[in-house]
Amino acid sequence: MSSLVLGIKMIDQFINFVIRPPRAEYDPDQYLWEKEFSLGGTKCKRQDLELTNSRGHTLRCSHYVPSSSREDTPLPCVIYCHGNSGCRADANEAVMVLLPSNITVFTLDFSGSGLSEGDYVSLGWHEKDDLKTVVSYLRNSNQVSRIGLWGRSMGAVTSLLYGAEDPSIAGMVLDSAFSNLFDLMMELVDVYKIRLPKFTVKVAVQYMRRIIQKKAKFNIMDLNCVKVSPKTFIPALFGHASGDKFIQPHHSDLILKCYAGDKNIIKFDGDHNSSRPQSYYDSVLVFFYNVLRPPPISSSYSSKLESYYSLGDVNSATGLDESFLYEIISGLRSACIDVASSSSAPPAPLTTKPTNELLSEAMPMIDTDTVLVEDNDHNVDDPENFEVTGACVKTIINGEVVVALNYVSIHQF
């Protein structure tokens, strides 16, 4: 009997792991970019708004735009889609990558996540309808030209599912998507060492299917990116960490193999939640510039961008001078930092302390390594079921590299 009780408890934990993971709770004024800030010499602003999805849930959203943007000059926009334990604060790095290039960034807390309404997440199924609500809003605003999607984990699946229904999307960046949920759940049984016979696991998954259908109103068997990929023609850049043990790299490989549109994939060191390397963000920037074609910007920063973007179509076999490439990228990165404004220091999600406290404690460093940060805000019953990682976020203040923020993250779909 005790084994049966333990098995039921484990199944219930797994169900919550899928549809009710730890929920990000945060203060937007502390963990998002400020209402007014500067990037790359450009003054920018954060516009907060609320939208209502098709199920009547209020979605908390933010749109990052240049302060000088004119109503008669629509700009391209990338919608950032977070993972299952994430929130719109996860888009902070996307803002820093894209906004200096006249590409605005829209981000939201999906229903059931962050500060939005809703009790459960659905790993992409209902989130794609939230995304439809956002796209409709942007289209009707007449402030946006082309639209791109950038999703990570659950957000990548959301983008794929929506992209299959809306060919007008200009391009998608898909970071660590799972190929189909059923196979992923079977794999996670092994990852988390749930010691049950395989036939028992399959019975348990069918039980979970019914419970999830009842609670969260979706069928886990319908979440299949391999099924929609052959009919999706939107240009796509896939990304996956080679050390991802949670959603293993072969998931992206399976999707890529049957994806119908123009496609490329970047593999990089790290795991599911690790910070992405700068080279990956460089590729994302080039990709979105090529598919979104933002209006040109003035100043020396613009000339660096044009040289940089032109590398997007360069074949590695052409013998490109590596020193020239390094010079362009280094100049571009330095141009992105506006040291005249302390608000240009990027915030990070789920910090253990308010941003102002962390900044006051920051100490100059030459380099930073990944660190483990204790997190007392999440209720994790079984430490084997979650891997908590932390990282230092570097920024430049008055020419010195400092540790600006420490943040933690929990394995996210």
UniProtKB/TrEMBL annotation:
PANTHER family: ALPHA/BETA-HYDROLASE, ALPHA_BETA-HYDROLASES SUPERFAMILY PROTEIN
Source lineage: Eukaryota, Viridiplantae, Streptophyta, Embryophyta, Tracheophyta
Name this protein carries in UniProt: Serine aminopeptidase S33
InterPro entries from the UniProt entry: AB_hydrolase_fold, DNA-binding_regulatory, Hydrolase_4
Keywords: Aminopeptidase, Hydrolase, Protease
Domain Serine aminopeptidase S33: 76-183
GO molecular function: aminopeptidase activity
Keyword Hydrolase recorded: yes
Domain of life: Eukaryota
